[in-house]
Amino acid sequence: MRKSTQHFKLFGAVTAVVVTLTGLAACGGSSDASSEGDQSEGLVTVYTGRHYGIEPVFEKFTAETGIEVRFTTGSDPELRARLEAEGANTPADLLMTSDAANISLAATANLLSPVESDVLAESIPEELRAQDSSWFALSRRLRVIMTSSQRVPNAPQTYAELGDPQWKDKLCLRPSTHPYTQSLVAGLINNVGADEARKIVDSWVANNPLYINSDTDILKAVVAGDCDVALANSYYLGRLLTEDAAFPVALTWPDQSTSGAHLNISAAAVTANAPNRENAVVLLEWLASQGQKLFSDANNEFPADSRVEPAEVLAGFGSFKADTKSVRDLGGLNAQAVELLSAARYE
Ligand code: FE
Predict the structure, then answer these.
(1) Are residues 233 and 189 part of one domain?
(2) Ligand 1 centroid to 297 CA: how many Å?
(3) Which of 97, 161, 221, 331 could form a disulfide with 76 if both were Cys (CB 3.0 to 4.6 A apart)?
(4) 193 with 329: CB under 8 angstroms?
(5) Distance from residue 233's CA to the centre of ligand 1 (Å)
(6) CATH code: domain of residue 101
(7) Quick check: is 269 in a domain?
């Protein structure tokens, strides 16, 4: 017994990115999700680019269904590349991403498989799922204007206003390599056209932004005075406010009189070569229905199903208009957004 425990420990250390949740089993051990021949009645393997508080969600799913969840985390593009390389031999049944463009790019690469499901059609609004039912949003995440509540009495109201010269040397942004930035700019291209989007990005760059590759660190930089205004996803502020209700950053919903705040999603899809397709569909439907609140609340995101009540801390952000009509186009516009950011010398 001792010997086998040591074996599992060693194995666990080698395959640290793979986590197995075994529910009631006392000693299920870990196992590398990349090993072949894992087909099993009660198993589903997930590749997830969204990993905030996912363990309790999967544990609940296992407790309710008896289906064991194995998951591997990575960035959205890394996991897509892995699916592509593994081809028909992939152990992954479900792909989860933290960005709309990345799930849509996986669909374009033929890595996903459509799911016709009444549960999904009823829970997930049409504009938040692929036209061919190859992917589905599970939660909504908004990229919004964040300002110091101590130093900024008049917050900018639009993405374009972040380029106003009054914010020179006072703006914090996420780098261009990050999907959140790319999808935001893809949304701008969709709403105002490439020329106008380029002007907006140029005006941000002219403000000499401080680029920080973490939304949490961006919000902390606002508090520390490294910048006064910034862009970040709404749930990061939700998380910090949960820890400290007096966290001195204010949220502004941008573009409320035009297209609405940039809406991105956490999404999921059954893979094209899923060894356990049926279980993947069960998990996907569960996440969209019974598990919808737990999944969204775990990260202070808005549920994709608007009938589901959002986490309490989000009520303080007030009501808002979101750009629902761009979500399906973010993948198709990704390459153009990346090019625009590069041409504008956005770091
Ligand atoms: Fe995030």
Answers:
(1) yes
(2) 14
(3) 97
(4) no
(5) 7
(6) 3.40.190.10
(7) yes
Residue 209 CB contacts under 8 Å (≥ 6 apart), including other chains: 171, 172, 173, 227
Domain span at 48: 17-140+265-308
Q: How many CB atoms lie within 10 A of CB 217?
A: 16
Q: What is the pTM of this model?
A: 0.89
**Above 60 in pLDDT, residue 294?**
yes
Does residue 162 share a domain with residue 94?
A: no
**Which pLDDT band holds residue 40 (cuts at 50, 70, 90)?**
low
**Strand ranges for 2-93 from DSSP E:** 18-21, 43-48, 68-73
CA distances for 303 relative to 54, 217, 309, 317, angstroms: 15, 25, 7, 15
Residue 313 maps to a domain: no
Distance 28 CA to ligand 1 centre (A): 30
Query: Measured in angstroms, how far is the CA atom of residue 59 from the centroid of ligand 1?
Result: 22
Taking the centre of ligand 1 as the mean of its atom positions, its distance from the CA of residue 98, in whole angstroms, is 7
Same domain, 162 and 247: yes
Q: Given pLDDT bands bounded at 50, 70 and 90, which one contains residue 41?
A: confident
Same domain, 89 and 210: no
Q: Is residue 241 part of a domain?
A: yes
Q: pLDDT class for 291, splitting at 50, 70, 90?
A: very high
Both 87 and 180 in a single domain? no
The answer to whether residues 102 and 221 belong to one domain is no
Exposed, middle or buried: residue 224 (CB in 10 Å: 0-12, 13-18, 19+)? exposed
Task: Give the distance (Å) from ligand 1 centre to CA of residue 236.
Answer: 7
Same domain, 252 and 195: yes
Under 8 Å between Cβ of 90 and 83: yes
Q: What is the pLDDT of residues 136-188, one digit of tens each?
A: 999 999 999 999 999 999 999 999 999 999 999 999 999 999 999 999 999 99
DSSP E strands in 186-320: the ranges are 210-211, 229-233, 249-252, 262-271, 302-303
- How many domains, in total, are found in the chain? 2
Query: What is the Å distance from ligand 1's center to 216 Cα?
Result: 9
Query: Residues 279, 256: one domain?
Result: no
CB 40 within 8 A of CB 276: yes
Q: Ligand 1 centroid to 10 CA: how many Å? A: 31
